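Me: Here is a favour to ask of a fellow structure person. Could you put it straight underneath, so I can go through it closely?

Assistant:
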Amino acid sequence: MATGTGTQAGAGTQTGTTGRTRGSDTRLSTGRAGSGGGRLRRGLLAALVAAAVVVPVSAAASPNVPAPAPATFSEDATSRSRYAANSANLAEAARTAEDADRPGRAARLRAMGSGGAAQFLTFDGRGRGRAVEVFGELESADRVAVLVPGSDTTLDTYERFRAGAVSLQQRLQAEHPRTAVVAWLGYDTPGTVSTTVLSADRADAAAAELAPFLDRLRDISGPGARLSLLCHSYGSVVCARTATGSAVSDMALFGSPGTGAGSARELPTGARVWAGRGSGDWIGNVPHVRFGGIGFGTDPVDPAFGARIFAAGAVGHSDYLKPGTESLDGLAAIVLGTTTASEADRG
C-alpha cells in the first residue's frame, strides 16, 4: 500500500517473528477435484487482491546507492549527540552519492539535512535507507506521536513522509506546545508493485524493531509522556503485530488494508485501537480476505473488528495528514487525548 499520508521510518534488533495465518479451506481435503478447485480459488483470490492493491499506484524506485555505515552509539547516548552524529553521517552520505554519480539521491539527502536543524535519532543512507526523525522537543514532550509508514517509503520518497510529520506537528503545537512527532522509517518497506505487499513478512520484521524502539523512546521523552502510534496503510500491519507493552496508550490505523487479525482484541497491545478511512481512499476497494498468508482479513473500520472509529472525512489514500483535513484533526485529537466521550465510546 503506498504510504504518502500526505506524507507516509529505527533502531532495534532485526529478528523476525512468525506471521499468523488462518486455516486452509477444508474443502481442499475432499479429493483431487476439490484440491484443484481450491488451488484455483486461491489463485484467483491472490490475483484479485494483487490487482486491487497495485493498480492504483506505481512503485517508487530505490537505487542501491553506496553510503557510509551508520553512526553507532552507546546505550546512554543523548538525543542531542545522536542528532549531531547522524547529521554528519547524512552529509557524508550525500557526498558519497554524488561521487557515485547518483545526483538525484544526493539532492534528496541534502534536502533532508538542509538548514542544519534536522533531528535524526537514526540514519542509514545505504540502499533504500532508513531514518527516524524527531519534530519538536522530545525530552520535554508529554504527548509523542510515532508515525509508521506503508509501502514504497524510502529515502527517495522521504519528503512526502516528512511533510505529513511536519503537518501533524504544527497541528498539535497549535493546541498543545509540549508535543513531538517521530517519523519512523525504521524498516524495509515493501514495494507497492510486489508480492511482499500482500503478506505480513515485512511487517513481522518491522515489528521486531519497532517494539524495542518504543521502549527506548519512552525513556528519552518527557516524564510520563503519552505515546501514540499512528499507522498508515501497510504500516497498520506493522503496528498490529507490534507488542507495545505499556509504552503506547493509543494506536490509530488509517488507510489500512487490514491487519491480519480478526479483531482489535487479538492485537498484542493494551492500547486503545482506533481506525479511520477517508471516503476517497481506494484502499476501501481492496478485498478484506485472507488465504494462505495472502491478504489481511477483517477491515479495521468494520464494526466487527471492534476498533474505535475516528472521522476521516473525504480524503484520499495519500491525504490523511494534509493541513485542514478532518482526518488530521481526528488524529491530532487521538494524540492529545481530546476526543469527545461519544467518539471514544464507538466500536
